[in-house]
Design brief:
The complex is a heterodimer of chains A (264) and B (267). Chain A is mainly alpha-helical. Chain A has one domain. Chain A contains eleven helices and two strands. In chain A, helix 1 packs across helix 6 and helix 4 packs parallel to helix 7. The longest helix of chain A has 31 residues. In chain B, 71% of the residues lie in helices and 0% in strands. Chain B has one domain. Chain B starts with a helix and ends in a 6-residue tail after the last helix. Chain B is mainly alpha-helical. The chains are: A mainly alpha (264), B mainly alpha (267). Chains A and B meet through helix 2 and helix 8 of A and helix 2 and helix 9 of B.
Chain lengths: 264, 267
């Protein structure tokens, strides 16, 4: 059974290889975004040495590594699940002897793995040549970072699955999916590090899973969180991963009971 | 186009709009969710501006109200463009699924038909919000209001819409030449990000790109600075309508050539 799941990862990886145009344009998109935010942040800093505890170099590193991490954890599982539900193919998949949600997770991981190896690694090399990025020297920090973006992938995929499963309950969850995407980009810290938000907003955000997706791993990578604080960040991620399993199971159970194939 | 052709297209527009409203009224909740999610995207960019200005008084010499003003201006043409050029799934729907063949058998111009089939008035609400944002920033900045300002705004907006329209028409037309250019639309969507902030923050290369190659700066900062006297870059802002006409003519040219080359997906 496990080997079937491994094959799913492999197949998705190969499928990503087949769509080469998307790969090249993806690289350019990430370069554009990193560039846009690099220049914007440089202008924001102006003559200031530090803002919200970030030095200019830390900020540059933060922007670069956050977008690179996003390349790994980002996937369209919400859209894929919603499409399966809308065209009714989810019914066929449910009869198969595997767990539908795990299958989706594996496919998302295959996609993430593709981008990690062919996108994130070369991308990071290029970015650190163009922009003044400070890479950590401590090997432990690298290890911790990769464990943490693994959790980023899990938590982001969980949110995607939740959003996708909403298609069982409403006939069109397009708007919801778009809102989720904006919310993740804004609140997870890709666009603005959480530390920049006003105090009340930070307090609210600490009670949401969003910062666990980007802000925590990127903060550890840039060295803004170290020692006990870094381990605590990892713990926060693990807790969110565990907590989010509950609503997924509840929704999955409820949705199987009210499966309603439109058209079909 | 002759006058009768305009009248003909206008009557088509009425018919399509009627159909749009009918289909939309069946899914009323969707309409508002779509409006809300469109606005949320702008809200994200505005939140970015507000949070950033919580830490700095100016961005390359631009104050918070000025940057908000530029963003408000940007929302106006962007909403109009979104209403008429909802071509995001053009390649998928018209080339891959072959609906282009149906379009080409009809007398109206293919681009007009496709624009009308996908018309999306929900986006116009974004324009209204943009106008309100621009208005409030106008008041905050205490800018003078001249009699020609509404006319200038109209000309600028038309120019900006034409730039977007031309670029995206050319982009959609790439589907006629090559198969599955799915990655290109998101690419453009990301480049336009640059045009919303004062162009002064970028280096020379990017500035040149945004002004003369992919002129997204004419959709935000240049035309808006016409009204911001302090940043008056008069020549660049007055160029907006002209750049719009040139870019749209280019888009139309690429489209028409593409239609001639089109041989169908073949299945």
């Amino acid at each position: 059974m496990t080997s079937a799941y491994f094959d799913l990862i492999r197949i998705r990886f190969l499928m990503m290889l087949a769509y080469r145009v998307n790969y090249y344009s993806g690289i350019i998109i990430y370069a554009i975004n990193i560039g846009a935010y690099y220049f914007t942040w440089k202008a924001i800093y102006g003559n200031a040495q530090t803002l919200a505890g970030f030095t200019v170099d830390q900020m540059t590193t933060y922007v670069a590594v956050s977008w690179m991490a996003r390349a790994f954890y980002f996937n369209n599982l919400d859209r894929e699940i919603a499409n399966d539900i809308r065209d009714g193919s989810v019914a066929v998949q449910m009869t198969r002897p595997y767990n539908y949600l795990l299958v989706k997770m594996m496919q998302g991981f295959g996609e993430g793995l593709f981008r990690l190896t062919l996108f994130m690694f070369p991308g990071m090399v290029v970015v650190s040549l163009i922009f003044p990025v400070e890479l950590p020297t401590d090997p432990l920090r690298w290890v911790l970072f990769f464990v943490m973006i693994w959790f980023s992938f899990l938590i982001n995929s969980q949110l995607n699955i939740l959003t996708g499963l909403f298609a069982f309950f409403v006939e069109n969850n397009e708007g919801l999916m778009r809102m989720k995407r904006v919310a993740v980009d804004l609140l997870s810290g890709v666009v603005i590090p959480v530390a920049f938000f006003p105090f009340w907003a930070r307090t609210v955000l600490e009670w949401t899973p969003f910062p666990a997706i980007t802000y925590l791993p990127s903060s550890v990578f840039t060295g803004r969180m170290a020692g006990a604080e870094a381990w605590q960040a990892l713990l926060v991620q693990a807790v969110w991963f565990a907590v989010l399993i509950v609503p997924i199971l509840v929704m999955w159970r409820a949705s199987r009971r009210r499966l309603f194939v439109q058209g079909g | 186009m002759s006058a009768s052709k305009w009248a003909y297209n206008l009557s088509l527009f009425r018919e399509y709009l009627g159909n749009y409203i009918k289909t939309r009224l069946t899914y009323r909740a969707d309409f508002w969710v779509e409006v809300l999610s469109d606005l949320l995207f702008s809200a994200m960019n505005l939140v970015f501006i507000f949070v950033v200005f919580g830490h700095t008084p100016s961005l390359a010499g631009w104050s918070e109200a000025e940057v908000v003003f530029v963003y408000g201006y940007f929302m106006i043409p962007f909403g109009v463009f979104g209403t008429f050029f909802n071509l995001w799934n053009f390649s998928e729907r018209y080339i891959v699924k072959g609906e282009m063949d149906r379009v080409l058998t009809r007398p109206a111009h293919s681009l007009v038909q496709i624009m009308l089939e996908n018309v999306d008035p929900a986006s116009l609400i974004g324009s209204l919000v943009g106008l309100a944002i621009m208005g409030s920033a106008w008041a905050t900045l205490g800018l003078p209001f001249d009699w020609y300002d509404p006319l200038a705004l109209l000309a600028m907006v038309i120019g900006s819409v034409l730039i977007y329209a031309g670029l995206y028409t050319a982009l959609a037309a790439i589907s006629f030449y090559s198969d599955a250019p799915t990655g290109i639309v998101p690419l453009m969507f990301n480049i336009q990000n640059y045009g919303r902030y004062p162009i002064q923050i970028y280096n020379k290369g990017i500035r040149f790109l945004l002004t003369w190659v992919l002129p997204f700066a004419f959709v935000g900062v240049y035309p808006a600075s016409f009204f911001l006297d302090r940043h008056g870059d008069l020549e660049m802002s007055l160029l907006t309508p002209a750049v719009g006409v040139v870019v749209f003519a280019f888009g139309l040219f690429v489209w028409n050539r593409g239609v001639k080359r089109y041989r169908g997906a073949g299945s």
